[in-house]
Amino acid sequence: MRKMLQSAEVDRNDAIQRSTTLAQQAAKQASQHVQSKLEKISGLERQHIQLNAAQNVAESKIRELEEKLQEERHKRKLIEDKTAELATSAETNRILMGMATASSSEPKKVKKKKKIKRAAATTTHIQPQSHYRVNMGSIPFIAGTSTSKSHNVGANIQGALSLLKTHNPVLCNAATKTRRKYCRTSSLPSDSDHAADVTEVLLGLQDEFGNMGFEHKELLKQIQDTEDERLRGDLERELDQLVARMETKGEQIATLKQHQARLTRSGKRKKKRPTSANGVRETKSLSVRGGEVEVVTTVKAKSLPRNLERAKSSNPARQNLDVLQSMRKLQTSLRKDDLSWD
Description:
By secondary structure, the protein is mainly alpha-helical. It has eight helices and two strands.
């Protein structure tokens, strides 16, 4: 019995030891498994952190690349705009230089037309003016009806009466002359007004030419950005039509600039031209009609003496009184020996 009890105790102790050992081994294995899991988790966390860092670096690089790409696109756009602008400027300069060269190669033809029109205008604007004619009934004394001079009279009263009776250019009607002169000068535009009109039209044409240049640049941009061949061909045809319109506008601008230069030279010559000794002064005005130059010449005569102006500007009664007073002065100044009749 005793041996059986001892063996049972020994078996029980062995079983307890085995169970304790197994429990320790299981706990150790569990702890090792947990430790391995924790190590894996920490490794995954480290990898996650590394991946996040790499992702941040990649994102920053992507942003830098996008910024560089945007900058390159902007630079390319600027280059395209500059190219279109330079092409437009080159086309504009070519048109203007071509018009200037073509206009400078034809100065002789313009001069010939100018001479022809000057002669025609000079002959056209000369008009006969009305003159003063004496009414024989308005003379306050009997003078006879002879219109010839008497060379035997010392004071030559008959010569003075002859001047009154005949058609004398000295006794022109000043009021009619002044009125006709003012009407003629007011009906024609002055050089300053004409130059102002030319300048205004020239500015308008230059604005239109600038707008055409802007359209030219926009069409070049559209042609550069278009990938469709059909649309590109349509845009190129539209560009050719625009260039033709620009050439026409350039011709108009060159013509107006030439006319403006002629007006400027004409104004300078008028300022430098002195008045002649006989009181005759010429003024010229230029105008372009149908591509030809028209020169209008206005002649201003020397002013008459003050006594003649007073005699012409007064009324008929005053004229008669002046004539009577002059006759009386002549009568008082004459002596009996001075008169001899044939």
